[in-house]
Structure formats: structure tokens, C-alpha cells
Amino acid sequence: MDAVWRDFYALMNALASLPISIAVAVAGHAPAGRTVLALFCDWRVAAEGDSKIGLSEVQVGLPLPPVILSALRRLVGARPAERLAMTGLLVSPSDAAILWLMDEVVSAEQVVDRAIKWCQYLLALPQAAMNLTSR
Q: What is the largest CA-CA distance in the chain?
């Protein structure tokens, strides 16, 4: 378990410190670790449907680590983060977008294409200004 956590934290750090922007396409259920990884990306596109998204760690008896809670707060704000984290609430993709846990919800057929289009949009921006602002 130590190696798993060490590797997971290394992955979170790598995502958070990349000098490029990252889009993630969430094509289905994203409880716990899948939502955590999405927190450390710059644009999150979810597929509409019956899937659930959220940080369910508390529901299985695990406290949410401070670095993950901080990332959640940065993304959704203090009060929504408290509600999501303390209850382990899992929400639909559309509710995740309302809470700013996801940036966009599209059909399952469009989820990957939409993430790619967001990346292409960023590539069309003046790179120096976008990169400095992103950092």
C-alpha cells in the first residue's frame, strides 16, 4: 500500500506541475481516485448519463488527505468542497458541472473529441501569455 500511495502522490504532483495544460475526458464512473486525478487537470469534460463523480473516501473510512482537499477547494470553493469531502457525496455529471467539479458535460460520443477541442483552442492562444497566466 505504501508503494501505491507513493506512486499516486507522484502522479498528482506530476499533473499539478506540468508546464502544459491537461484536459481529461471522464467517460463513466469516477469515484475516489478518478475524481482526484481530474482535480489536478485543467479542464474536465464528463459524459452525460447515470455515472457518478466524487470523492467517496469518507464512505469507506478513509480521511481525505489535505493536498486533495486543497485541490478540491481551489476548484469548487470552500463550502461545496466541505460538503463533497465530508459526506463522500457522489453526484451525476450534470450536478458535478453545476458544482464546478466538471467543466462541461457532453454526450458519451463527444467526450474525448471535446477534450481534444479544448486543447486545440489553447494551442491557438498566444502561448507566452497563456503559459505565464496558467503558472
A: 46
Cell numbers that stand for 5 in this block: 500511495
Q: What is the percent of the chain where pLDDT is above 70?
A: 100
Averaged pLDDT, 91-100: 96
The alpha helices in 18-77, defined as continuous H runs, are 33-39, 66-76
**62 pLDDT more than 80:** yes
Q: Using alpha carbons, list the distances in angstroms from residue 94 to 48, 100, 107.
A: 7, 10, 11
Reported pTM = 0.88
E strands in the chain: 23-26, 30-31, 43-47, 53-54, 90-91, 104-106
Q: Which fold has domain 2-134?
A: 2-enoyl-CoA Hydratase; Chain A, domain 1 (3.90.226)
Q: How is the chain split into domains, by residue range?
A: 2-134
CA dist 15 → 20, 24, 81, 128, 133 (Å): 9, 11, 20, 20, 17
Is residue 102 helix, strand or coil?
coil
CB 100 within 8 A of CB 75: yes
